Amino acid sequence: MRCFETLSAGSVMISDAGNYPKGFESGRTHLTYRDTEEALALIDNCLSAPEQHQHLGANGAEMLRQRYSKSQQWAAFMTLCEQLIPA
User: Alpha helices of 1-87 — where are they, by DSSP H?
Assistant: First the structure.
């Protein structure tokens, strides 16, 4: 949930490397790290040159608007409900 909240706010997300939902791409929509040293370096880099990373927040927010719009969420929810109702 924190991933969606962070990106929807247009913020730069720095998180651990791992599996993310479709559309989340490290280096395009957010940044990932593998260890503490890499995390600290990314944080320092973002804080010292925020203008170089603003595109990540914008890319992440746009990706969410396109891929996870309210209408798409509602359609997926309705499909799930239909599968739960016996025929």
Answer: 2-8, 36-48, 54-67, 70-84
Reading the chain (87 residues) residue by residue, the pLDDT tens digits are: 899 999 999 999 999 999 999 999 999 999 999 999 999 999 999 999 999 999 999 999 999 999 999 999 899 999 999 999 876
- For residue 57, the tally of other CB atoms under 10 A from its CB is 19
What span, in angstroms and rounded, lies between the C-alpha atoms of 35 and 85? 46
Q: Cα–Cα distances in Å, from 33 out to 37, 52, 58?
A: 8, 18, 20
φ and ψ of 20, to 5 deg: -125, 160
CATH of 2-84, one of 3.40.50.2000, 3.10.20.880, 3.30.540.10, 3.40.50.300: 3.40.50.2000
Whole-angstrom Cα distance, residue 60 to residue 58? 5
